[in-house]
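Summarise what follows for lecture notes:
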Amino acid sequence: MTDSKKIVRHVNHDPWRYLKGHTAARIALGRTGVSLPTHEILDFGLAHAMARDAVHLPLDVAALCAELAQADFATIAVESAVNNRQTYLLRPDLGRRLSEQSAASLTAHPHKGFDLVILIGDGLSSMAIKSHALPMLQALRKHIPAEWKVAPVVVASQARVALSDDVGSLLQAKLVLMLVGERPGLSSPDSLGMYLTYAPKVGRADSERNCISNVRPEGLQYEAAAYKAIWLAREALRLQCTGIALKDESDVIAVESDPPIALK
């Protein structure tokens, strides 16, 4: 005789459950018996898949350039020395240098000597660029001083952060600001990073750059990131340096301003 009674498993909630509303981190997941609840396992699998997609999905450079053009941003498309995504992941050094064709194109560019070059690179998350590049540029445009000579936006595929040195030096820029897709996490597959370098040249160390990270609606807001970036850029031109020699005091200035600037 079979037992017709159904076995019902109850989820034992974690006492930290009330903290879940304040973070996207995986805390207070609860348990069913000795295991995680099924929906938490499925959510983890989805987050892992999204992180992998963020790394492997190619950036549609043509579509991005068209979108930027509609917003009145002139663009220049370039490529690194990498010709496919697998090589990009295995050879970071090639992602730090322009292809011969792209280098020749920037060398032949009729205009040089910019105060600022903004470079957009897919990095490790094309999703971040697709989602945040345009609104970030629009926020930056409001803060860039009118007297600065700003280059067309350079859009690079298969790009690492140090590609900004190659681009900036060929365009003879005083500053290069790179917007790049950051390594995805399990709660942030589309996080945008920003790297500022003074007097870019091939061989610059990461310690010679200033970084603004986690730019996205769930992290650092576009307006706050733009304010920080241009504040650092102004100071970089004044002090002729970036990186560990340039301390970010933009938060102090923002709090003391009237009215104060929200840096959330």
